[in-house]
Amino acid sequence: MNQPPQGGYPPQPQQPYPQPPAQYPQQPNYPQGPQYPQGPQAMPPQYGGGAPYPINRGPSKGVGVLKVLVGGCLALGMLGALMNAGHEGIAASAFMGVVLGVGLRWVATGGANVVGKKIPLLPSLGVIGIGAVIGAAGGVPMSEAYWNSQEESTWEQLTVSQAAYMSGWEWDYEYFDKIPDKFQREEAPGMKKYAEVQEAIRADNVVELRRHISEILLEHKGDPNFAQALDAAASTLNAKYEAVLEKLAKPGGVTLGDGEFPVDEKLRAAFKEVLTDLSKSASADVFVAFTNSSDLTAPEGHQAVFDELLEDPSVKRGFPDGKVPVIDPGKAFSPAFDTARRGSFLKVSSDAFRRMFDANLLNLTPIENGVTREGKIVLEVNSKILRTITYFNYYNTDAAGTKTSNGLLFGVGVEWELKLYNREGKLLFEKSTYSTPGSDIYISSKPTDPKWAVYSILMDSAYFNYSREVVGNFGLQPPEMQTTFAYNDYGVKGE
Fold first, then answer.
1. Longest Cα pair distance anywhere in the chain, in angstroms?
2. How far from chain centre, in Å, is Cα 445?
3. Residue 326 carries which DSSP code?
4. Pairing between strand 285-295 and 363-367?
5. What is the pTM of this model?
6. Residue 479: left if φ>0, alpha if ψ -120 to 50, beta else—which one?
7. Could you give the angle at which helices 265-278 and 453-474 cross, rounded to 10 degrees?
8. Buried-most residue among 44, 213, 219, 428 (CB within 10 A)?
9. How does DSSP assign 352-397, residue by residue?
10. Nearest-angstrom CA–CA distance, 327 and 495
11. How far is it, in rounded angstroms, from Cα 361 to Cα 350?
12. What secondary structure, in 3-state letters, does 106-147 show?
C-alpha cells in the first residue's frame, strides 16, 4: 500500500530528465588508410568546439641560419681582436676568448638547428669554455707572432723597398701609428729622423737640416741610432761649406786694388776647421767678443812734431798769439763709443760673410763680457788705443780757399789682436797687427758737432779699416775703401 509523502512535500518524479543512451550509435565502417604512429599527446583529445593546441615541430631552420651568421661574424671579429690586442695580457685574451666561444657556440647550435637537431645546453656551454681556453693560452703568442710579422714587413718596406722616398710623416702613418710600441724597434726613431733628413736634402732646405742637427744634438746626443741621420745632415752641410771655400780667394792674396790684404793661410786653415765644426753644430753661430783699452800718454818725440806745426800759416792765422791748443778727446775714446763702434766691425765682416754664406751656414753674433764661452766658437777682437807722435791741423776753409786752424789733434793708432777659439777653448789662430786711421779722409762736419768729434771720426775710420783687413785675411772680398766720415754721437751726447 502506498504511503503518503512525508513532510508535506509533493512526491518527486523518478528520473525526470532523459538520460543519454549507454553508448553512441555504432558508426559505419569506412575503409581504413595507412596507420601512422602517434606521438605522445601532451593533452587528451578535446571534444567540442575551440582551436586545437599547437604541436611542437622541432628547431627552426631560419633561426639556425641566423645564429650561424651572427655567431660566425662574432667569432671572426673576436679572432681578429685577439690577434690585434691579445698581446696586452692573459686577462684580456681570456675575455676575448669567452666572446669568441659565444660566437662559436652560436655557430654550433645554429648549425644543428639547420639540420633539425639540438645540442644539449651543457655541451653547448662547453664551447664557450673552449674559447676562453684558446684565448687565455693562445691569445698572447698568436698576437705577438702577428705583430712581429707585421713589424718586419713594414720595416722592410720603409727601410729597403722605398727608403729613398720615405718621409717622416709616412713613418708616423705606416709604422708608429700602426705598430704597437712594444713591437717597435729601438732604432726606428733614428730611421724616421734619417728619412726627415733625406727629405730636407732633396728639398735643399738648409734651415731644416740645421734644425734636425740641433734636435739630434740636444735630445739624442751620443745615441748610435741617430748617427746615420746626423752624418747625412752634417755631410750635406759640409759639402756646402766646401763649395764656399772653393769660391774664396786663392792662396796668395785678394786681387783688390794693390792687394793690400794678403790671404792668411793659417787663418784659412783654422777657418776650415771652424766650418767643419759648424756642419755638425746645432747652430751656425760664431760668437765675436771684444775687449778695448787705451793709453793716451803723449809719447816721446811728440813735441818736435807739435812745434813744427806751429809754423803752419793756417795755425798762425788762427792763433796769432802762438797759444795753439791741443783739442781734448772728450768722449771719443770712452767705453760707450767703443762699444758702439764694434757694430762697424760686425757689419763689415757680416756683410762680407753673408755674400758667401747662407745665414744658416754662418752667423756672426756678439757676446758680452762675462757671458760664458763654454761650448762656443769665439772670434776674439782685442784693441788698444795708443797716442802717437803725430799731430793733425784741424782747420776750416772759407769761400776764398783760405785755411784757418781750429787747433791741433794728436794722432792715434790701434794695436789689434785677433784670436780664434774652438768650442773646447783651444786657440786655433792668433795674429797681432797695428793700424792707424785713414791718412787721406774727408771729414763731413756740422756746426753742432763737439770739438772732439774728429777724434771719434778717426776711431770710426780705424775700426772700419781693421774690419776690411780681417775680411781680406779670411780670403773674403772686403768692402770698398771709405774716404768720407761724419761724426756719429752713437746716442751719447757731449761737448
1. 204
2. 53
3. B
4. parallel
5. 0.64
6. beta
7. 80
8. 213
9. HHHTTS-TTT-EEEEE-TTS--TT--EEEEEEEEEEEEEEEEEEEE
10. 12
11. 12
12. HHHHHHHHHCCCCCCHHHHHHHHHHHHHHHHHHHHHHHHHHH
* Number of neighbours of residue 359 by Cβ within 10 angstroms: 12
CB-side exposure of 221: number of CA atoms within 13 Å?
7
Judge whether 301 and 427 are in contact, CB under 8 Å: no
Please, are residues 349 and 265 in contact by the beta-carbon 8 Å criterion? no
Residue listed under C-alpha cell 796668395: 252
- Minimal CA–CA distance to 296: which of 92, 452, 85? 452
146 half-sphere exposure, CB direction, 13 A CA radius: 18
pLDDT per residue as tens, the chain (495 positions): 444 554 444 555 555 555 555 554 555 555 555 554 554 554 555 544 455 555 555 567 777 677 677 767 866 766 666 656 656 656 666 666 667 667 666 666 666 666 667 777 666 666 666 666 665 556 667 766 777 777 788 888 788 765 656 677 788 888 888 878 777 888 889 999 998 999 999 888 988 999 999 899 889 988 999 999 999 999 999 898 888 877 765 554 444 444 567 888 898 889 889 988 998 888 889 999 999 888 999 999 999 999 999 999 999 999 999 899 999 998 888 888 888 888 888 888 888 888 888 777 888 999 988 889 999 999 999 999 999 999 988 888 888 889 999 899 998 989 999 999 999 999 999 999 988 776 667 777 788 888 888 888 888 888 888 888 888 888 788 888 877 888 888 766 544
- CA dist 327 and 337 (Å) reads 18
